[in-house]
Specification:
alpha+beta; Outer membrane efflux proteins (OEP); rod-shaped; membrane; Outer membrane protein TolC; porin activity
């Protein structure tokens, strides 16, 4: 694969992954209410990360550097020009030799240069795959941080809503006290719970800063830059069945395969290097005229074609080079198997995380519905009898706990989906078991 073809593949693959045509991370257009506004935001963040992240730039520079190997190895060795001037003239029949010019070009064995070019190009392709994997992993990390910020914003929203509801409960308790149907302890107890909630909110606000910093660092931009987070991300209903997947198209697998092919080409290079090299050249001798006699072609310069052949009789280095390439092939074959096993294991783990978060979402939603009904009954009882306010507060805080767990389960779900699609290289599909 030549440089321009590799460049075209880079542009093609970048577009492929960026716009979700079977690629990575552009999933938010699939989201429901509240998702469309965030889609452009996350898309922009991934674009910024791809352009600015120093790790991505370093990986791309390595790819560019690898592209420069092929032009180096496919070129012939430099010709040798030798110029000789005689201190004392060497006499010939046609006259004295005044100077000699020798030009020699060595040629490697047939196919050596093309084999070297193939090996260098395959290594460049391997670096290209390494670049893709680095970029895709960055996209996953950006998405992961995005979902952490989403969870934080949801938790802040729940905590703030809880403060307002508790204030309403305090007003209710005060009204009961004025009517002689309640106790002042209920009001004071509400203040305690409000104080706890406000402290939890302040801690969340403190947590927001490092999360925002980590997100902006991935984008290599100012740490204080605000991050736009949607209010809601909806899970698209879908099948919970996960089909067996193949990882053959994963950049890490393709990279090892390219290195394996490069090692095979390198073995061929080593074999051809052990063949004779042929040199073709010309010798041009400047001859002066003889002054002591007249001869035919007096002072005519001499032109002599030359042929040289290298004799690769010291075979150990060539055999060692072939063995080296063979061992590298064996190493890459084992590496491929290891990467496949690691991806397969990670895939099973991430499927478990997806299914677990789905079940937790279902459980917490059911629990919230039940707690809402219980809370309404308890409030009705308190309004009528003026007792059981402590139970009202307990149920309210339990309801808040389930809400916070929903935010955490959503974050775990979306993060696991992001990880799954990084592992498999598929487009994002949001699934639940509802």
């Amino acid at each position: 694969m030549k440089r321009n073809k590799l460049k075209g593949l880079l542009k093609e693959t970048f577009t492929f992954h960026l716009w979700g045509l079977g690629g990575f991370f552009f999933f938010l257009p699939l989201l429901g209410v509240g998702g469309s506004a965030a889609a452009q935001n996350l898309e922009d963040y991934l674009m910024i990360a791809a352009e600015n992240n120093p790790g991505i730039q370093a990986a791309y520079a390595e790819f560019e550097a690898a592209l420069q190997q092929a032009p180096q190895v496919k070129s012939l060795p430099d010709p040798t020009l030798t110029v000789s001037a005689f201190g004392r003239m060497v006499e010939t029949r046609l006259g004295p030799q005044e100077a000699r010019f020798s030009l020699m070009q060595m040629f490697p064995w047939f196919g050596t240069l093309s084999a070297k070019e193939d090996a260098a190009t395959l290594m460049a392709e391997a670096r290209f795959q390494a670049y893709l994997d680095t970029r895709n992993e960055l996209f996953y990390k950006v998405s992961e941080q995005f979902f952490k910020l989403y969870e934080l914003e949801k938790q802040l929203q729940f905590q703030n809503d809880n403060v307002m509801i508790l204030q309403n409960y305090k007003d209710l308790a005060l009204a009961q006290v004025r009517s002689g149907n309640g106790a002042m302890a209920d009001v004071l107890q509400t203040d305690l719970v409000v104080e706890e909630t406000l402290t939890a909110t302040e801690i969340l606000e403190l947590q927001k800063r490092p999360l925002q910093t980590q997100f902006n660092v991935l984008l290599n931009r100012d740490k204080e830059t605000a991050v736009a987070i949607p209010d809601t991300l909806e899970v698209i209903p879908g099948s919970s069945e996960f089909e067996p997947v193949s990882f053959e198209e994963h950049p890490r697998i393709v990279e090892v395969e390219k290195r394996l092919s490069a090692a095979r080409s390198q073995e061929e290079v080593a074999r051809k290097e052990g063949m004779p090299k042929v040199g073709l050249g010309i010798d041009y001798v400047i001859i002066g005229e003889r002054m002591d006699m007249a001869v035919d072609n007096n002072g005519q310069d001499a032109v002599m074609p030359m042929l040289s052949v290298s004799l690769p009789i010291f075979r150990k280095k060539y055999k060692a080079a072939q063995k080296e390439a063979q061992f590298m092939q064996e190493s890459y074959a084992h590496q491929k198997e290891e990467v496949e096993n690691a991806l397969s294991s990670e895939y099973e783990s991430v499927i478990f995380e997806i299914e677990k978060s789905q079940k937790m979402l279902k459980l917490n939603r059911r629990q919230i519905e039940n707690m809402d009904r219980i809370l309404n009954l308890q409030l009705s009882s308190y309004r009528g009898e003026g007792s059981g306010f402590e139970e009202v507060l307990r149920i309210r805080q339990e309801l808040l706990r389930y809400q916070l767990e929903i935010a955490g389960a959503e974050k775990e779900y979306f993060t696991a989906i992001a990880r799954k699609n990084y592992i498999t290289g598929n487009s994002f599909e949001y699934e639940n078991q509802e």
